[in-house]
Each structure stands twice: as structure tokens, then as C-alpha cells.
Amino acid sequence: MLQSKLFYKTTKNKTAGVDSISHDLLVRAGYIDQLMAGVYSFLPLGFKVLKNVEAIIRRNMEEIGGQEVLLPVLQPKENWVKTNRIEIEKEILFRLQGNGDKEYILGPTHEEVITPLAKKFVFSYRDLPMHVFQIQDKLRDELRPKSGLLRVKEFWMKDLYSFHANQADLDAYYEVAAKAYEKIFKECGIGKLTYRTLASGGSFSKYSDEFQTLTEAGEDLIYICKKCNIAINKEIKGENAKCPKCGNGEFEDKKSVEVGNIFKLATKYSLPFDLKFTDRDGHDKPVLMGCYGIGLGRLLGTIVEASHDEKGIIWPKSVAPFLVHLLQLDSSPKVKKVAQKLYKDCQKENITILYDDRENKTAGEKFGDSDLLGIPYRVIISERTLKENAVEVKERGKEKAKLVKISQILKTLKNAK
User: Fold this and answer.
1) Which of 100, 376, 383, 395 has the greatest CB tally within 10 Å of its CB?
2) Taking the domains of the chain in order of start, what are their residue ranges?
3) Tens digits of per-residue pLDDT, 9-60?
4) How far apart are alpha carbons 31 and 147 in whole angstroms?
5) In whole numbers, what is the pLDDT of the chain averaged over residues?
6) Which element (helix H / strand E) includes 385?
7) What is the torsion angle, in degrees rounded to the nearest 10, for the CA atoms of residue 18, residue 23, residue 29 and residue 35?
């Protein structure tokens, strides 16, 4: 991508009215734009990161047997009446009046869609287990949107729903899903900061699990056992003076943001929709369910909270919009020729590259933008580097740059992928 053609703008000044680092940096670097409180447009750079996060999630869901579907955002009111969530969740529901006094819900979640859908396909124990997921737009009338992408009204979310014939199968798959979540967060570069955190399981199981990433921007508080390193949330801490795992009573409290959660739903939704199956003995039994969610935008914002410095974002390679940021510092024919050749060679080798070909910017302005954008590798071509028959390569977040011979740069970048 040529930076002169990129649909974005950067700014040096701190964004007015923001209350988180990720919000400030993502707006200033031209990744997102705020339309109104809790609602954001993803610009080309931001959308590339979002799609990279999506790809990591999708691959991991498919690896544990998830089949992808796409469910409607527009949902019938009647389904929400059946589960009584039209009352329980009334404060966050966007409700829509259609023609002929028909009422709809703009989906904040999709249990009221997936459960009656499963009823059309699940009849016998032979149809179970079943695992389906979607990555879909969600809408919640959040009363206090804040911290940029960390708390919003409209967002992309991955929902995985699992359907089981017995508790043992649900329990086993729940652990498989938890391991997949740990892998996702590791691949997104926040694994070391993310804790599987015990939370209340409601009426259906002793515990559910939240995945909490340590950050000062977080609204949550988690308690990490000083002995076994397990984390529990505030609710569990109130119920248990000691660690549920090892019995230790000493905890370290840390601010965090929830990047994912998993629940054993049991029969909470299968009973209202009469979702049953016939077992091996010919008896009808309710299907047991699990649900597993990750908010993509929130995860993206959390990555920035976890990986930045005073100059800007530091993207992990796995989610960065481009691997390489190529800076042409002089406009001489020789420098242009070498830069354009490297740009084309990278494209041929499927090395994602942003080429700063702008001729109306100073070297200082280009360096400032490059640090703010946070692309993993910066490659500089100038008259000075060409005197050494080389280019300068600097990894974002590291102090030292190194000269790499032009004949070796493509190989170096390929190895960095």
C-alpha cells in the first residue's frame, strides 16, 4: 500500500476527551474514527488489524470443531419473551418497531436465535455433540460507553455455541474451548498478561470463566493467588476468603479488562425452546449447551493497552496491519528506484508492506508517523544507506537499528514473517 494513497490522517496532539491509551492512540494513528459515543468506524488500517484478529479466532474455532454460521442481527421479540430476557436485559436492548406493530430486537447476543435453529437439526443423540460459531455485529445500549473500543454500543463478537447430550461431554468440551482461548490470546500477543479467571457460574455450574488481561485501563479488578497464581473475580472473592484451588488466603489485586468469557449454559435456553433429543434408550432429554464469547474490537483495544510506548502503538506481528513500513527519505531517482523495487519484491513474496512514498513530509514527520502506527519493521532507504549499499532496519519497540545489505533485505524480511 502506498502511504500517499492511504485513507487516514495522523495527529500529534492527544485526542480530546479520551480516557484510555488505546482510544487515544487508535484515533491519533488513523485506525478508528468516533461517530458518536460508543460507536466507531474502522478505517483501512484498523480494519486490517480487526480482520487479522478475526482470522486468528476463526482458525482456532475451526480447530476445535466449530462450524461457522452467520445469524441475523434482527431478531423477533417473541424469542426474547420466551426466555424472559426482554425484561432481564431491558436496559441494554435496542428495540425496533416495524410495520404492522411488529416488534424486533437488534441482537446483543444470539442464544435466542441459535437455540430454535438447533431445534431444526438436533433430534437424536446421533446429532450430538454439535459446535457452531459466528463472528457478527452486536448492539447493546450501553449506558456508559467509555475507553474507546473497550466499552461500546456496537461491536463485532465471536460467539461459539456447543450442544451436548450429557454433562461429561459438555465439561470436556468446555476445557477444550478454554485451551483454545488461551491459544488465541497468546497468538494476539497478550498471553502473558491474560488470566483465566474464576467467575460465578450462576444456577447451572459452580464456576464460569472470564479471560482477564491486566491493564490500568480496565474496569474490572481480579485477585491473583500469591501461591498458585490462579485468578478469581470480585464476586468469587466476596464468596471465598481463600483461594478455591489451593486454600491460600493471600491475593494480589490487579486492574484488568475482560477479553473473553465462557459459560456452561446447561438447559437455560434449551428448556424455553423445548430443544430435546432422543437418547439411546429412546427417552427425550433436554440438550445441554455451552457458550463462548470474544469481543473483537475490545480485544484489539486491549492489545494496544498492553503493547505501546510514549511514541505510539507496538503491534505484535500476528495482528499488525502490515509487517513492513518502508520509508523513502530522499526523492532522488536512485533512492526511488531502490525503494520501488523493494516494494514490488515484497508484494511478490506476500510480505505485507506500507510504502511511505510521500515527498511533502520531512524525515522527522515520517519517523513520528511510523512510531505512532506501530508497524513491526521499519525499513529506511536514503542516500546515506545506499552509500553502504544497504538499507536500515529497525524493529518497533527496540532502540537499535541495523544496516542490511540490499541483496539480503528480502531474505531478512521473509524470515521475519
Assistant:
1) 376
2) 17-309, 324-416
3) 999 998 888 989 999 999 999 999 999 999 999 999 999 999 999 999 999 9
4) 15
5) 96
6) helix 383-387
7) -80
Closest CA to 200 of 250, 244, 246: 244
d(CA 325, CA 135): 30
Domains 17-309 and 324-416 share a fold: no
Q: Which residues pair with 96 in a beta bridge?
A: 104
Place of cell 536514503: 382
- Between CA 408 and CA 404 the distance in angstroms is 7
Cell numbers given for 48: 486490517
C-alpha cell at 300: 484489539
CATH superfamily of 17-309: Bira Bifunctional Protein; Domain 2 (3.30.930.10)
The verdict on pTM exceeding 0.85 is: yes
Name the nearest CA neighbour of 209 among 230, 239, 186: 230
pLDDT value of residue 241: 85
- Across the range 380-384, mean pLDDT stands at 97
H-assigned helices in 198-249: 234-239
**For residue 202, pLDDT beyond 80:** no
Q: Which CATH superfamily is domain 324-416 in?
A: Anticodon-binding domain (3.40.50.800)
